[in-house]
Amino acid sequence: MLRSRIAPALISPCLLLLAACGGGDDAAPTATTAASDASSPAATAELTATPEPTATLTAEEAAEEALRRAATRTRDFIATDYPLNNSSVATVELHEIIPVLPRDGIQSIDNPKFDDVATANEWLDEREPVIAFQLNGEARAYPLRILTWHEIVNDEVAGEPVIVTYCPLCNTAIAFRRTVDGSVREFGVSGALRRNDLIMYDRQTETLWQQITGEAIVGDAAGTRLDFLPAQIASWGDFRDSFPEALVLNRDTGSGLPYGDNPYPLYDQPGSSTLFHIDEFDDKRLDAKERVLTVDLGNDPIAFPFSALTQAIVLEGESAGTAVVAFWQSGALSPLDGAFIVAGRNIGAAAAFRPVIDGAPATFEVRDGLILDAATGSQWNVLGLAVAGPLTGTQLDPVISANHFWFAWAVFAPGTRVITD
Q1: How many CB atoms lie within 10 A of CB 403?
Q2: CA 205 to CA 266: how far, in whole Å?
Q3: pLDDT tens-digit readout, 144-177
Q4: Distance CA 347, CA 338 (A)
């Protein structure tokens, strides 16, 4: 059974997600989904629910009282787990933050170890999803079979301190520089969520940070933003073939976790529920669990739905006056579908690039399912690398983009333009 295979700190969220996946997006967790664990996410959700109006409280007063209680619980959680944090300085309402696990209940990887490509190929299926990351000529892969259980890797690539993150509840993989105001920070998993998204904390100041936005949201540094770095989800096979000299995060973490198992089976099914209901999510243009590739260059967010990308393979868009091109390629498995990642369905991978080659605008098209540039007929893959033709070895410049579930992106970037053709 699941309980015997996972770390004790993860038991409650995993059980809850198994129960929650059967409901619609508006389904709310109930006490029965918490497996009688008063500290579980479901129990927290029940506590934060609006109480029924009584003879002495109107519905509006009851709702306000529920928000006050939720804010108090969050403030107490911060005071207990993050004594250095000044919770009176915040860019968000404290009642929006839901404590789920204790600090470091999910353990970040702070001293990552790596395999070369040949060694990693012995234990990674070519269809498995990895976070593909390049910086200053160095390429690294972070398999989601590992990141699903740890969510954060503190690393140094090409001499640059970086953080590579993955929030399974939002299907969001993002990389950042971890130098803030000249100081290198080390990040951990806070144990709290906001709008179902991972809240990180830095161990130097205990500031709380929102993963999707990269913003410090509670603490004296509230309002500060981390610098985003390009990263994408791709299949191991595509990454391996594109970067044969790369390093690959290995399983030597000392945790004993069952890497390769999916602790959130069926979580990404269309129509399935989020872990916690999000009052702010009301954008029904897409299913809440639709995967989208998003770009936001200067407060002009755009999203390419996977449902459109799988048909078109190449889509063009523009954000803040800058042209971008989105590629999709079959082959990558969902990490959030089957009980084992290798049993997940093929959802493919997507990424966005500047459509410029050698300083000149480029046009891309699809022929026989292959991505080609119109000028030379060279073939390109989803990592923006020319893999055949006159331009073989040429690399397109990536733009900051990310895969998300639609609900996760839409609540943080309202007004996003959805591009389908």
Answers
A1: 26
A2: 37
A3: 999 999 999 999 999 999 999 999 999 999 999 9
A4: 12
With H, G, I as helix, E, B as strand and everything else as coil, classify residue 39.
coil
Report the candidate in 99, 95, 96 with the shortest Cα–Cα distance to residue 69. Answer: 95
Torsion of CA 349, 397, 126, 368, to 10 degrees: 60
> Rounded to whole angstroms, how far apart are CA atoms 288 and 284?
7
> Cα(34)–Cα(44) distance, rounded to whole angstroms?
9
**43 Cβ partners below 8 Å, 6+ apart?**
31, 34, 37
Q: Exposed e or buried b for every residue in 176-203, given b needs 16+ CB within 10 A?
A: bbbebeeeebebbbbbbbbbbbbbbbbb
pTM: 0.88
Cβ distance 66 to 83 under 8 Å? Answer: no
Over the range 109-119, which residues count as b (16 or more CB within 10 Å of their CB) and which as e? beebebbebee
Question: What is the C-alpha to C-alpha distance for residues 230 and 174, in angstroms, rounded to an integer?
Answer: 8
**What Å distances lie between residue 43 and 100, 137, 163, 252, CA to CA?**
9, 47, 31, 34
Tokens of 222: 């509230």
pLDDT tens digits for 192-225? 999 999 999 999 999 999 999 999 999 999 999 9
pLDDT tens digit string along 97-148? 999 999 999 999 999 999 999 999 999 999 999 999 999 999 999 999 999 9
